[in-house]
Write a structure and sequence with these properties.
Layout: H1 3-6, E1 13-14, E2 20-21, H2 35-64, E3 73-79, E4 85-91, H3 93-102, E5 106-109, E6 114-117, E7 126-133, E8 139-146, H4 163-167, H5 181-195, H6 206-212, H7 214-233, H8 238-258, H9 263-273, H10 278-284, H11 289-304
Parallel strand pairs: 3-8
Antiparallel strand pairs: 1-2, 3-4, 5-6, 7-8
Helix pairs in contact: 5-8, 7-8
Length: 308
């Protein structure tokens, strides 16, 4: 801090709401030319108070975790868009504090007795957007976006061995991810698309027909969207609405596959729009994703430290 800025302050105090105040002193009308320096000191004081607020809240949070007799707790990394469970590890107090600070999923290695950040070698970091504790406060979820495959094998997640497949003696080529309903459907559509590369000697399935004829596909999407709207116009039962929405979603996902767009990409767009109104979102289209990530970072910080 410059000496000229220090002269603007006789004594610096902080109110209970985290706002700095400056007693009357050298920062008077006679020294109006130094007002800019005063404002800089004010901003610096606010930042310091904010840091103290965050540090205090982090310590309170760390104290609330039920660490085991070795000072550890289970931490699970989950994809914020797909919901996929990426990996499990262990964290200690320092690992959790580091994750909160860096927003990179950090764990504690029991074999090396040291902290390690996922991606420090592979560069496939898991960028943490939020952290959740379970009801017993002895298990933690890192909710984040991976930069690439999470598993050291190159798999998207560390969970790709199905017990049912093993018990039923199913032969699975490659790995099979633990997929939810939506992503199982996406996977099936992708398989149908891949099969089109092989000469077809039988009547194509419905999905393949849609993939082979984009005009037909678009007409079906419009048709199903109209039927979905009719469920509200004609006051039909909610089960009918769910059924029609299922049709719209399925046909739209075929279109996504045709365009080589993943459902995860769509969810990523929606997540970035959470903090914006529809009008603001339209105005901001075309801006870089980095700007939106910064907005999300600030919202996360405000949640952690509401006194700012």
């Amino acid at each position: 801090m410059a000496v000229s800025s220090l002269r603007c302050i006789q004594s610096l105090g902080f109110s209970s709401r985290g706002r700095a105040f400056f007693p009357v002193g050298d920062c008077s009308r006679a020294n109006a030319r130094k007002s800019m320096n005063c404002r800089l000191v004010f901003a610096s004081a606010k930042n310091s108070d904010r840091d103290l607020c965050v540090e205090s809240k982090v310590e309170t949070l760390l104290d609330s975790v039920k660490w085991d007799d070795k000072g550890l707790a289970v931490a699970i990394a989950q994809n914020i868009d797909t919901g996929a469970i990426l990996m499990q590890g262990f964290v200690n107090r320092d690992a959790l504090a580091t994750t909160i600070s860096s927003r990179k999923a950090t764990f504690y290695s029991r074999s090396r007795s040291s902290l390690w950040t996922k991606g420090e070698t592979s560069k496939n970091f898991i960028n943490v957007h939020d952290i959740f504790l379970d009801c017993d406060r002895d298990s933690i979820i890192y909710l984040g976006k991976p930069d690439g495959p999470t598993c050291h094998t190159g798999s998207e997640t560390c969970y790709y061995t199905s017990v049912n497949d093993f018990l039923e003696h199913k032969q699975i080529e490659g790995s099979r991810q633990a997929l939810t309903t939506l992503y199982s459907l996406e996977s099936t559509i992708s398989q149908r698309k891949a099969e089109l590369a092989v000469p077809q000697h039988v009547k194509p399935s419905w999905t393949k027909r849609l993939l082979l004829d984009s005009k037909f596909l678009c007409s079906k999407i419009r048709e199903e969207a109209d039927e979905l709207c009719r469920t509200i116009e004609e006051n039909e039962h909610g089960t009918r609405t769910a059924s029609e929405m299922g049709d719209v979603l399925y046909h739209a996902m075929v279109l996504l596959a045709l365009k080589d767009v993943k459902v995860e990409d769509v969810l990523d767009v929606l997540r970035h729009r959470f903090s914006q109104s529809g009008i603001e979102e339209k105005r901001s289209r075309g801006q870089q994703n980095e700007a939106m990530e910064e907005d999300g970072s600030w919202m996360w910080f405000q949640t952690l430290c509401p006194c700012t």
